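ok so i was messing around last nite and threw this chain in just to see what happens. nothing serious, just curious
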Amino acid sequence: MSPTMFTQFLIFFLLYNTPLIISLTTQDPYDDFVRPLDRKLFGLDKQEKLSHFKFFWHDIVSGHKPSSVAIVPPPWKNSTTAFGLVNMIENPLTLGPQLSSKLVGKAQGFYASTSQSEIDLLMAMNFAITEGKYNGSTITILGRNPVFNKVREMPVIGGSGLFRFARGYAELRTHWFSPKTKDAIVEYNIYVLHY
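result:
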């Protein structure tokens, strides 16, 4: 191959393949929005534990300092299910059914009445633990609560702190309810898989 022919070939090759070479060597950092990670970086190489937590959840809607307040009233005053009602909560979590028993956390979130034919609630809550080993950690619960069923289940969908990557379920039983004030005490048994 003569030098002229080689030069022509090189120029042709570079002109034809330059866009390909540039695209291969200059990757946009925003093109790769997902990448595999090492489980050890997040402490996921440890053995998973199953823990059981038992709390009493105090929904106080009456009195001068309620822990549950309506932020969206039901649109129809004569609704038997309060369909459309949304309550914001910061309910005490205690070890026993009495409000005076040891406070171990608070349930922060909301519940909404989601049925026109029965009393069902959509509940979204963080159980913020304030005592012991799990102080500062949260368990997140999101689910349907058909309140007049004797036993209800809602999923644990995650958490924070020592409950990162948590999953499990909560089993609920109404301990006490006042039809007059609408105050309630609900026993929560929470089963959580966590690291």
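not much to say yet. The radius of gyration is 28 Å.
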